[in-house]
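Thread: Modeling a multi-component assembly for a lab meeting

Hi all, long-time lurker, first post. My supervisor asked me to bring a structural picture of a complex we are working on to next week's group meeting, and I have zero experience with this. I have the sequence lines for every component (217 residues in total). Could someone generate the structure of the whole assembly? Inputs are pasted exactly as I received them:
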Amino acid sequence: MTTEELKALEIAKMVDARGTACPGPLLAAKKAIGEIGSGDIMEILSADAGTKRDIPKWAGKKGHEYLGDIEEDGYFKLYLKKN
Amino acid sequence: MCIGLFSGGVDKLTYAGVVISGAAADDMEVEVYVHLQAAQWFVKGNENRKEYLSESPDSFDEFTKALESTNSPSWLEFFEMAKEMTDVKVYVCSLAGKIWGGSREDDFIDIVDGIIGIGEYIDAAKDADVHFLI
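Re: Modeling a multi-component assembly
Sure thing. I ran the full set together rather than chain by chain. Output:
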């Protein structure tokens, strides 16, 4: 998805994990995914570079659709759709 | 996943916690077998023992300060979080337990699921898809 498309998504759950290092954002995403419904979009905020690789791989293994990321000043916003 | 946890340094305990957490995110079943040096931290009453590093012991202060700056949980908090998220079992080697003053399950901290002999660890290592020795 393009940055514009990602910015236009309706977010069901935002997880701000910028205060944690690996594996904190991944664990936060794992906990939060259970709080949204199938088809809902989750946004994960992370300042940990490893998260940008971890989350897409984790989403793929769990059957969720990874939609992409937006790079902000000092952190990333990552988007996925729950299966 | 099977982990043979031998090392008692806070660096390797933290590493074990990180690995277990990653496995928890993947819903993997994890069995941790706690051996000699690591077992001291799983016996109740040993919380106040002086911590150390398994690698580069002279850099203990530098390492722990840097680790704290990342807001990472302690190794024990990693274990506790992982146990809440997936099927993580922690077993202590009976010999190791005795060395550090633990011979009954009540002697160990709450995350410990049992005391085992080496045969059980060997079977687990043989059957596991992934085996770490830390």
